From TrEMBL, chains A, B, C, D:
Gene Ontology BP, a term: fatty acid beta-oxidation using acyl-CoA dehydrogenase
Domain Acyl-CoA dehydrogenase/oxidase N-terminal per the UniProt entry, residue ranges: 7-129
Recorded family membership: Belongs to the acyl-CoA dehydrogenase family.
Protein name: Acyl-CoA dehydrogenase
Length: 406, 406, 406, 406
């Protein structure tokens, strides 16, 4: 259980922090400005491309991706880097080509894609030329139970035909999002975890209808391509677009979600740190009832509690990363669920306090806090709601004490 | 301490509920549709005017306003009506001409305005022809301490000249918002609570610059005229625009805030009831892990806790209304602070659970929950943050036990 | 919904407060002293008998009991009186002959007992000459589900024979506790709510074994006769000892629990008020870091939050009392559950803060706070744990939205 | 940041777990039995001496003490061992000679005592022959602010004369507690942190009056020598009894408190683990409403949340231990405060849930839960209340953002 950062990580942290200080933080207001001025509310903006070029030239690129296709870092190496990007979560992950959902999609393609998939989709994604989406959640069923998924993927000769409705498909409103990984059922009569398959659907396939952007507490997240509702209306793609074989969809989803969850948690810690910094700076600078707000006991209570929570979360995330590196994602299952349960809820709490300390400014567009809060809140729902993870984790805990079944 | 609804209240409740069922709830999707289609993101939409006409014809108009100018109800009579409007808070309060900030502004004009003010501004507000704004909060200071206000109101001959910057001026983005009640300092050297004055500033006065709409968690609240940042750049108005005399601003603000706070709390209870209803309906209709979500123990815990909280809040609001009616706003000071502390926080909690029970739908524009949540959250800040009210209430509690000073 | 105190209540409140000030509060240290000095750790002490005589002479006696046998007050009349006794819960309820479990037992006997039961047991209880116990909870099953009860009551000729094990039988360690009302099953094959019966078992019946006192967080509650573990080993009593007919036990229990729960909640509110008073007095009188602790923001937050919570609880308790008076206990079912859920939890929170404000003194025997806390905590378990009440209340809430079954 | 257990630690863990399984857990009921039967409610019982002999023979002795006098373990090595002892906190720490307050006292004597002190007091303490007490907290002032201490230590020739009143002096009721380390003021006019000194006072010195045992939520903790109120009435001891020089008392207290706090936190984690285990076992074995309680969603929520919290706490404690080992107690100041803030509060929460899951059994003497809870609750007060630590930690956090003072 050694969480010390090795020399490579330390070097990358320094390099990344320099990049943040020199380029990312100064670009935040420019980014906001360009977003406000663009014509298409779902498109990216020039500053992002500029920063991508700069990041790549500095060797800060695809850090999330282990193995030959990416930077080859371990989870433990990547964790402190992802945390740093979380301090500016609208910009930094994207410009390092480390933003969800592309990260998870690249992992899926790298692990489960064919050479042709690599060539056609993984390569331009790795190069940051296109974006991608992951289409799993459906509006018409409780998607927290993956067995409820109703989208159909039906074999028809050399093709598969896909029909169904998805929503909250992050990134899919961006016109540069070119490829969807779609989860659906190929065999509703198979055993529960072998009914699903995943298939690649290019955005421009006939029958793909990107209907509208879904909101998150008033935010469209248009800077990230939003969260689309997408209808697949008898969409026909070549059979070779299927990832692996029929029935492997659930397993691929599991493989994708482990790293996805920890990446979110790493970034959430950076978001919390940003929140604490802003809370301190603001309360030092504002005076009420005769003294700086920072001297109010209640505010100090918030700050202390926030620090104590973040320290605990970070260590649990690091342990989880270390476990994933050493015993594999399956062996780290309890820990991945633990950070998924603990991190969004605690970070939401911290950001709520930072908001309150800012008064009306806290809920405004002049500070990143309300947006960070909405992202944290969303993660109590996304990738499985807290309640489903708790239920599963509790059952595993209880199993320790159940009499053996023969 | 008699909270029973009298015959008049019961009759009004029935009439209002019929109006809600027949007109308001069915109009909600139309309203959303018209909002999406309008050109000016800050303007009102036709359905609102239609409903206003209908409401007025049914005698559901200006219910909030006691005395000759309004419906003449007591606070206790108005409370259950305001609660009902809170079930559809984007539409109902407005179409009954009972929406903040106009309500508070009409009260101020009715109580403290001159006959000329009545003629010029109160009359069209009572008729729902124009909107108004209340300009108090400033971006550059901690406005939770009213003594921090920096806007200057300087006498110059027969005029006053106003200079300062305000933000979160609700309603002010709406082009039909014609009159601002502005709080500023006429005498920074007077004793702390006699420094401020209030003055009427027509929107079209030279020097009034409505700069931009401020957001609340991603929401512009454009349907209510948003929350404007407004700069007053040497704005000159006739001296007769001053409300009462110089130095009376703090007292007027206090008089305005008591009813304002309880109206918000009444509506919040309706919002909570809407949330509980939606939470029940949704969890009954969705199935996960083999049974309706409503049968999950954790969900039942949320529902029970929500019901128990709402019942407590409602009673405290009713008691506060009754006290205001019987001993006056000053005598109900502790209770007004108590509901201001308890209601937004508890209702926020309830709405959070209703959101979680909806999955991604909960944070979306397809359900009113995320918007209701943002409104509740905002009220932990607006009209004095929780912490300021708690501090003040605690001091009064402690005073009971302090040795008498001679 | 009129909660105003009528003239009789106001007069009784004044009389009771005078009695508290003149006799009860001054007796608290004497009581502690006598408890420490007695030989039998389960017996009562002389000061209690003195105060009983005084209370009765002042007409402060059996206030809890409606109808001819008691003071004849309504629940709404009794509520503020019970609250006052809650300020000194170890002494005041007992000396007014208003202490659990005798109160519930007297109610049961008054409502369901035969004339002979009245003569033999109700009369001396009403006169405060003997004590009684209610034997329901069992150590070997989850008693939160009444259907689990395993004690057997078997008819044998003119007798019933009782066998089973009970615990947490409050008051039963006191040698002056002469009569047990025992809940058991007469017919395990009947439908679930007709299996149980209640029967009177005099303490001196052969086979009754009072084994030991059970603790509550280290407290024996020996001043109230403790909480006994009692074994009934083939205990034979005359058939006439059965209350009502066989199978009526569950209904009697329900009838007993409604008033019992609200009495606890009334007193809990007085306990909370005592806690707030002590918290204020202590923090005013102690200085740390250069100012009285009462001026610390965090402490003020506790005080304000406590006040706000108590006001809400009291109103909900009053409404429940009023409902029980006007529509009956059955009609007040949801409200009784609501106060049972809300009151112990909130009062526990308040007392925890009062303890913390006292430092080590808070957990000590020199202040009543830790004892009050344990009593409040126990009530999250006793008379049905929170979770069972929440589950039941939620189901009723959900029922409003379920499709009608035909 | 390497928290892996080294070979020595692993070996000791195995040895300790074997000892727990073979001797400690089986001794728990015997211990309770002997406690119930002893004459002196403050004395130790034979089983403890037996287990001490066994533990020592197994090399499980003085594990807490670094350096030559003890087992020489680092904090990181000791942490997992202390956690294991926390699973049986009434027995295990004592029988390993690792129980507070002796541990802290031995550390003080080892670090700051003279050779004569070592010979006279440290040696028998290390051998487990006598017990000791640490007399700091006073009943008459807010001891959370160490500057408030009023006990006087006055030089008079070759002696010091001590006068003052202390309470919650843990262990001091035990007749085998032979030596007190007393904190008092030698110079009330010195700068705040140089006013205090520490001095050794043998229990049998004339003027030492051990008055009574103080309770913790009804518990006397008589098995650990209780928590005494002690009056020092012109107690005269030789000047050589002073530790170090006059004015060094505050610094010695700080040196003592760091390890003391982390030891408590380590054990608290073991207490939490015991609570989780009991919660699981109980809810698996009890049935209500047709299924094992362990299948209730609310109970599973508690179990999951408990697991997630414990994992976070343990890591933060390990990091703190590692920091103390590598950069010293001063460098680990923030972390020591963090675990002192987080651990008792979280563990209290977990134990509360375990209690609730046990029904009445949870608050009884038949399960260790209520006692564990009281110990955890006490630690939110002892060694500095949460609020003082939070205030201090927040100030350090805020300092990062304060402008440099010149």
């Amino acid at each position: 259980m050694d969480f010390a950062f090795d020399a490579e990580t330390d070097e990358l942290r320094s390099r990344l922090e320099a990049f943040m200080d020199e380029h990312v933080y100064p670009a935040e207001p420019v980014f906001e400005q360009q977003l406000a001025e663009r014509d298409d509310p779902w498109s990216s903006v020039p500053i992002v491309e500029d920063l991508k070029t700069e990041a790549r030239s500095r060797g800060l690129w695809n850090l999330f991706l282990p193995g030959e296709h990416g930077a080859g870092l371990t989870n433990l190496q990547y964790a402190p880097l992802a945390e740093i990007t979380g301090r500016s979560p609208q910009l930094a992950p994207t410009v390092l080509n480390c933003a969800a959902p592309d990260t998870g999609n690249m992992e899926v393609l790298a692990m489960f894609g064919s050479p042709k998939h690599h060539e056609q989709w993984l390569r331009p994604l790795l190069d940051g030329e296109i974006r991608s989406a992951f289409a799993m959640t459906e509006p018409d069923v409780a998607s927290s139970d993956a067995r409820n998924i109703e989208t159909k993927i039906v074999r028809d000769g050399d093709s598969y035909v896909i029909s169904g409705r998805k929503w909250y498909i992050s990134g899919a409103m961006n016109p540069n999002c070119r490829i969807f990984i779609v989860m659906g059922k190929t065999d509703p009569d198979a055993e529960p975890h072998r009914q699903q398959s995943m298939i690649l659907v290019p955005r421009d396939t006939p029958g793909v209808q990107v209907k509208r952007g879904m909101n998150v507490f008033g935010y469209t997240d248009g800077d990230h391509g939003g969260h689309a509702e997408v209808v697949f209306d008898d969409v026909r793609v070549p059979a070779e677009n299927l990832l692996q074989e029929e029935g492997s969809g659930f397993a691929i989803a599991q493989a994708r979600l482990g790293p996805g969850r920890i990446h979110h948690c790493m970034r959430l810690i950076g978001m919390a740190e940003r929140g604490i910094e802003l809370m301190c700076r603001r309360t030092i600078s504002r005076t009420a009832f005769g003294k700086p707000i920072a001297q109010q006991g209640v505010v100090q209570d918030w700050i202390a509690e926030s620090r104590v929570r973040v320290e605990q979360l970070r260590l649990l995330v690091l342990k989880t990363a270390w476990l994933m590196d050493t015993v594999g994602n399956q062996g780290a299952h309890t820990e991945i669920q633990s950070i998924k349960i603990a991190t969004p809820a605690s970070v939401e709490w911290i950001l709520d306090k930072a908001i309150q300390a800012h008064g009306a400014g806290g809920v405004s567009q002049d500070f990143p806090l309300a947006g960070l809060w909405a992202a944290a809140r969303m993660l109590r729902l996304a990738d499985g709601p807290d309640e489903v993870h708790k239920r599963s984790l509790a059952r595993r805990e209880l199993k320790k004490y159940l009499p053996e079944r023969k």
